[in-house]
C-alpha cells in the first residue's frame, strides 16, 4: 500500500516526538535535566518535577501535531483527541516558554 507524503511526515513527527520524550525522561532520571534548566542547582525532587513540567510540552506537542496530520486516517474520536492534545499541549508549551524566558 502506497503511503502519501503527508502520512510519512506525520509518522516521522511522531517518531521524533517519541525520541524527544524518551530523551527527556532519561535526562530526568539521571538528573541531567535539572542542571540544564536550573544553573548551579542541586537535583532535588521538586526541581526535577519543575524541569519535567517545563520540558515535556515539546515532545507532547510534536506527537500531537503528528496525530493531527494523520487525522484523515484515524477514527473520528482519535482525530478529535489529536486536535485536543495539540491545543492543550500548545497552550502548555506557550506557558512553559513564557516561564523560561521571563522567569528563568
Features:
single chain; elongated; mainly alpha; 104 residues
Give your account of this protein's structure.
With 104 residues, the protein is mainly α. It has one domain. The chain has 5 helices and no strands. Helix 1 packs antiparallel against helix 4 and helix 4 runs antiparallel to helix 5. The longest helix has 27 residues, at 76-102. The N and C termini lie far apart (49 Å). The model has no long low-confidence stretch (mean pLDDT 88).
Element order: H for helix, E for strand: HHHHH
From the alpha-carbon coordinates, what is the Rg to the nearest angstrom? 16 Å
**Helices and strands: which structural class?**
mainly alpha
Number of strands: 0
Please tally the helical runs, counting DSSP H or I stretches of 4 or more residues: 5
Gross geometry: elongated
Number of structural units classed as domains: 1
Main beta-sheet annotation: none
How much strand?
under 5%
Please bin the fraction of helical residues.
Answer: over 70%
Layout: helices, strands, pairs:
Layout: H1 5-30, H2 32-37, H3 45-55, H4 57-69, H5 76-102
Helix pairs in contact: 1-4, 4-5
Write a compact overview of the structure shown.
This protein is mostly helical and 104 residues long.
Amino acid at each position: 500500500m502506497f503511503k502519501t507524503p503527508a502520512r510519512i511526515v506525520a509518522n516521522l513527527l511522531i517518531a521524533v516526538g517519541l525520541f524527544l520524550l524518551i530523551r527527556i525522561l532519561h535526562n530526568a532520571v539521571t538528573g541531567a535535566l535539572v542542571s540544564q534548566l536550573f544553573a548551579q542547582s542541586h537535583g532535588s525532587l521538586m526541581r526535577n518535577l519543575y524541569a519535567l513540567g517545563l520540558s515535556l510540552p515539546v515532545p507532547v506537542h510534536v506527537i500531537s501535531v503528528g496525530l493531527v496530520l494523520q487525522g484523515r486516517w484515524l477514527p473520528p474520536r482519535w482525530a478529535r483527541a489529536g486536535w485536543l492534545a495539540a491545543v492543550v499541549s500548545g497552550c502548555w508549551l506557550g506557558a512553559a516558554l513564557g516561564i523560561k524566558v521571563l522567569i528563568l
